[in-house]
Specification:
The chain is mostly beta strands and 183 residues long. The chain has one domain: Roll (3-methyladenine DNA Glycosylase, Chain A). The protein is 10% helix and 33% strand. The radius of gyration is 15 Å and the shape is globular. It starts with a strand and ends in a 9-residue tail after the last strand. One of its GO terms (biological process) is base-excision repair.
Amino acid sequence: MRKLPRSFYARDTVKVARELLGKYLVHVIDGVPHIGRIVETEAYIGVHDLAAHSSRGITPRTRVMFGPPGFAYVYLIYGMYHCINVVTEREGNGAAVLLRALEPIRNLDGKTSGPGLLCKAMGIDLRLNAHDLSSDDLYIADDGAPQSQTIVNRPRIGVDYAGEWSGRELRFYIQGNPCISKK
């Protein structure tokens, strides 16, 4: 497997969200690689997207979203669950892709269907916020195999507060995969 280059992330967020499906999230902890295949994502396309954390501007929490692409934006939700996003597009845009679900591949304990469960199984927490995804201990990789999966578009989950943005089909998943978060 080869790490995705920074140029992969420095593109349109919707395109990145779709093309992350089938790639592998790798977190090396104490020399042990924990690997899951990405099977569900959501695109948050910048400050104009009312469901995106960046829509409230630059804050200590969202600063990483406005930085260069290819970094992890990790945050805590409901005071107990971590979520990991991948920063996309050019610096200053405030765009990112939420990783919603993984198919366990190697060394994963527990469920991976949902962003909080995914982070728990992968050992991802706030210490990895703003982590460079071209590092050797947390990265996304491609095995080079051709992708022949059907991708489904649906509205994002849990963004009813976002007005017209709540119904936009910016959630993507691999059709028929048993590990997606919501059927």
